[in-house]
User: Fold this.
Amino acid sequence: MTSAPTAHQRTRDDHASEIAEDYVEAVADVIDSQGDCRVKDLASHFGVSHVTVVRTVARLEQEGLVRTSPYQPIELTPMGRRLAKACKERHEVVYRFLLSIGVPERVAAVDAEGIEHHVSRATLERMRQMLDIDM
Assistant:
């Protein structure tokens, strides 16, 4: 049963990157809609404490995804912006696919948020082909 550890390892790896992906996507969305993003914006968005956001943003900064300094807005690095764009595109493909198979909008929105982090490139590409979209 050699494929099980590989599948489980991929799921564990996906879980490890979920928070980073969700945060950079949220930072990009807030910047695009409000002009800048602050810790309070993310705390409100995710329904978490200021401390949780500060710790997560510090980790993202160590990973080279954001830049921040005390009392200043959070900025995405070029790498962070690329990741946010890829996450948003992946989410949109999964969401559209779920709608195309008849999943109600509200359910598709919630399901896409979880599925987007675990869908393989091959599956995502097949979804794109079936939807006839190029992103």
In short: The CA atoms of residues 35 and 55 lie 23 Å apart. The mean pLDDT is 89. The first helix runs from residue 3 to 34.
